[in-house]
Amino acid sequence: MSIIWGDISFDGPYPITDWNPPYCAVIYVIMHKPDYVNEPKKFRLLYIGGLFNLSDRRFYREQDKYNCWIKEADSEDNLYIGIHKMPNSTADERIKIESNLINQYNPVCNQ
Question: What is the value of pTM for the model shown?
Answer without folding.
Answer: 0.89
